[in-house]
Amino acid sequence: ALAASGGGAAGPCTLPVLLLFLPGLAAGPAGMLQPRDTPSRERRELGGLWSFRADLSPGRDAGFAQRWYRRPLRQTGPVIDMPVPASFNDITQDPSLENYIGWVWYEKEVLLPLRWLQGDPAPRVVLRFGSAHYYSIVWVNGVQVVEHEGGHLPFEADISSVVQGSPGSLCRITVALNNTLTPHTLPPGSIQYMADKSRYPKNYFVQNTKFDFFNYAGIHRPVVLYTTPAAYIDDITVTTTSSDSVATVQYQVSVVGSTANSLSLSLRDQEGKVVATGDGPVGELKVLNPSLWWPYLMHENPGYLYSLEVRLQAQLGGALLEDVYTLPVGIRTVHVTSSQFLINGRPFYFHGVNKHEDADIRGKGLDWPLIVKDFNLLRWLGANSFRTSHYPYAEEIMDLCDSYGIAVIDESPGVGIKLPESFGNRSLQHHLAVMEELVRRDKNRPSVVMWSVANEPASELPPAAHYFKTVIAHTKALDPSRPVTFVTDANYALDHGAPYVDVICVNSYFSWYHDPGHLEVIPLQLTAQFENWYKTYQKPIIQSEYGADSVPGLHSDPPMMFSEEYQQALLREYHSVLDKKRKEYVIGELIWNFADFMTNQGTTRVLGNKKGIFTRQRQPKAAAFVLRDRYWKIANESSCLPPAITSHSLFL
């Protein structure tokens, strides 16, 4: 990448300064209900082709200096078509865009229905982004409406006053997006300028990161315009408990726009029958003989969801307004003991995967065919769970987890927290804000059974004690109903964050990164790992990552590293130890990784990380069949499964 100092004033801090200190409107702490079509609400997706322009000026600041947002982007200079949702990196044949760092600009012009602009009172019009990586500033018709830091969670803005005050129904949406990572972003990174002019061009810089996946950038998830009445349901919080033949659904509803209102609630089963009713903003619903939400392969009817209809009637001026929102609700409980993870009071063993939002061409962009293929592969595999490594996944993916019964360890973007400065108060405050956004988005999902606040941080550093004590306590305060963890690769005796987690999640790569090629060391080293952690903390343990790279079609007997046979052999060595320890205090195993994925270029990466049991194109390697046999065997050990689903032949 090339950047100049912009007249000598910016220097190495050009991009971070632009990233972190532009003035504007921050996304507020309001509710973040997922947009849905209801009798009182309309939604319109803005996917498709947007105008796109990378700011190639020396300081990456021409767009702001020339105020590109004040007029159509095509009038500022050359633009190209860019699909949304998608990462921009792999779309073109321009190699400079593949690794571009700095500001890029998107624009979309849409016509709004007149019914969205008229009325007394007129409806509320909201612009919502599922995610955009990493730092976003949004204008509508040249007026700034929202600013957001973070690449994996939604943000929105009420644009009613802008569009209803403009002549005509044209809505021009302009987005400035910066993918720069600094020591205080989440995930962190750093910009390194190369000062040796005999080896690098003037003001040459690179983006450094401490994580092993490609830093794709762009508008990655759907952009939606939606409406609500002027008085509306802003947020809903639901928690559930059950005992014997009665379940309790506790709810809290917040309303904006009117104090003179009435709220009514109806809970319906999957046949549409009303099973409980309530009224008021706070209360509880009693459900007799409930159908509980169970994980896949733990019950003959996994992922059972009720529908909670919340209806608001509000007086605003002389108008009587009504807003309706329907929330899927799964009734289930989670409890952790010193050696078990209990769902609805029954021991649950995580036999699942780690994933990435990653695919050819579209990068991290949401892609429905890929999502459905992945869930079909998960069920074929006999996987009952996954971790959202290493950032929150799209709401569309989480919806399917809810309805298919896939248990989720919901992870924040706290990956690569390695530098001492990333444990300071500035980073901590941002991490707390990210956890607030994540819990606000996913708090009502039955599939989310645990929060993970970070992956492989430098938790052996002394500042990690206060840092993780604070983040974990904050997350528990936001949601007391779920356990909280982070994923460690530190030595059990040196980890300053482990005392504060509910479940120990450990990553290890014996005979790969450690003692490479020596499969014979795995039984001893893995057994010692488990025994040391459990003796120290007396908490249940998940083997949250393990695996080996394999190049599809590369074979070796005896097994050699990078062959499909070596990947199979390594898995079997791990499994032999896991089979012993899961009878004691090991409560899960998550393979790294579900599928091959792209990384930065490097001498140890041949077109990405090859630890997937499936290729990037979702074709199985030999290890997929090893894992499939294992997971179905574990599932079949449960006496709770009826004979009709105890054979994986149904999923061939």
Query: What's the name of the CATH homologous superfamily of the largest domain?
Result: Glycosidases
> How many beta-strand elements?
32
Count of alpha/pi helices? 11
Domain unit count: 3
Strand content: 25-35%
Distance between the termini: 48 Å
CATH architecture of the largest domain: Alpha-Beta Barrel
Q: By helix and strand content, what is the structural category? A: alpha+beta
How much helix is in the residues? 10-25%
**Reading side by side through the largest sheet, how are the strands ordered?**
25-26-27-28-29-30-31-32
CATH topology of the largest domain: TIM Barrel
Radius of gyration: 25 Å
**CATH class annotation of the largest domain:** Alpha Beta
Instruction: Give the biggest beta sheet.
Output: 8 strands, parallel, barrel
Broad shape:
globular
Query: Which runs of at least 5 residues are low in confidence (pLDDT < 50)?
Result: 1-28
The overall pLDDT average reads 92
Notable traits:
single chain; 652 residues; alpha+beta; Jelly Rolls; Immunoglobulin-like; TIM Barrel; 3 domains; eight-stranded parallel beta barrel; six-stranded antiparallel sheet; 11 helices; globular; disordered N terminus; Beta-gal/glucu_dom_sf; hydrolase
